[in-house]
Amino acid sequence: MNYNWNWAIFLSAEPGGTGTYLKYLIIGLGWTLVTALAAWVIALAIGVAVGTLRTTPMPWVVRLGNAYVEIFRNVPLIVQMFLWFFVAPELLPKGLGDWVKQMPPPWGSYLPAVMCLGLFTSVRVAEQVKAGIMSLPRGQRLAGTAMGLGETQTYRYVILPQAFRIVLPPLTSEFMNVIKNSSVALTIGLLELTGRARAMQEFSFRVFEAFTAATLIYLLTNLVVVLAMRALEKKVRVPGLIAAGGAPQAGH
Amino acid sequence: MDSGFDFDVIQRSLSYLFLDGMTFTVTLTLLAMSGGIVFGTLLAMMRLSSITPLSVVAGAYVNLMRSVPLVLVIFWFFFLVPYIGAWIIGARDPVKVGAWASSVITFTMFEAAYYCEIMRAGIQSVARGQVWAGYALGLNYWQTMGRIVLPQAFRNMVPVLLTQTIILFQDTSLVYVISATDFLGAASKVANRDYRLVEMYSFVAVVYFVVSYGLSTLVKGLQDRIAIIR
Fold this sequence. Notes:
The structure holds two protein chains of two kinds.
Chain A: H1 21-53, H2 59-73, H3 77-91, H4 94-101, H5 107-134, H6 138-146, H7 151-181, H8 193-204, H9 207-236
Helix pairs in contact in A: 1-5, 1-7, 1-8, 2-5, 3-4, 3-5, 5-7, 6-7, 7-9, 8-9
Chain B: H1 8-12, H2 14-47, H3 52-67, H4 70-89, H5 99-124, H6 128-136, H7 141-171, H8 183-194, H9 197-226
Helix pairs in contact in B: 2-3, 2-5, 2-7, 2-8, 3-5, 4-5, 5-7, 6-7, 7-9, 8-9
């Protein structure tokens, strides 16, 4: 291939004046992680609640939960991103909408990105949590009732502690998905890792160096997440219980 | 936004949105699905192969594609394909490749990794005895795979393959980042020209929802119909 590699580019200064290109990309990684983590908190909170509610014997709560999941699952992420960024501020009361629109960068894109990724991921978490609860033998719930526990207590002491351990591996891959999906936020102007690699390519014309660096940083991040989650799985494992293996699933 | 909403803009641009935009999206989805399933199946056969180099290469490719954001992959191919093209035809300078060709190649190669994992699970879901029976009948590897294992694997995996295709249909909207005129790209061009972002993006969301939800309902129905009772 006729391409002249120039790896020294990472040590030269980027035009924004914040330091070298290497530092520029590392700050991008920081934004990726800060966005993904904030979205993950939202996703876990809503996802666990919705996923659990969908397994209760209350038909209209289940239906509401299903509707929530279908809405956020059937609209592409980038379209949801645009809805949060362009549409949501217009639908808010005027004062609040103007305040959102006038937030200084990067917060003006950070907030919609976090909301979007949080809710988008929450339905995936909800699906996993529901599947985890459903995979428990029916006897567990019955035993809880037989021991005189109420509905809430059965969930709190019998079902959820087991379900959480089962869904830990699928949740790991969901967390890695949030990290990857946060790159879509570059379309609303958030300069996270992919966005900065793209910007670096535009400033310096070093296309493949920039993308190679970003790719390596993503791979490294994935490795760290996998190792950390594996350690967590080991720590919370209940002796005698085997974590369930996942069924084949579509993903992106 | 001072004059309220103007939903007429949707009606005025319908033909552009669907004839240009949706055609791009649907064609891209179908091409990437066909190519992705073919390459994915080959990759799955490589991953399950007893020839170590083959399984290592396939495994590395699949894991690489699955750990990098799709947006980054789209950028990679957008800039890489011209060089690969030049290398293949032996030209000195990078060939010109448009957003369309680049998108088709990107999504085929990217989705192949995901279809591979599905087909791998499908092949593994076929009972071992089937393979042995094939060999016992004197069939070679390709005959056993083509006539015995893969047809069963496909049948078992049709619902998951179709679900993946619905996800692919949604993901093609990311070609926005290389300014291709897919459904979202067309809508965004109209939205910015007429300054009707709220109306256009809401409409896009509704259309994507209706199509994806409709298709996934169909897949669910199919899943119940073709399930094999064991």
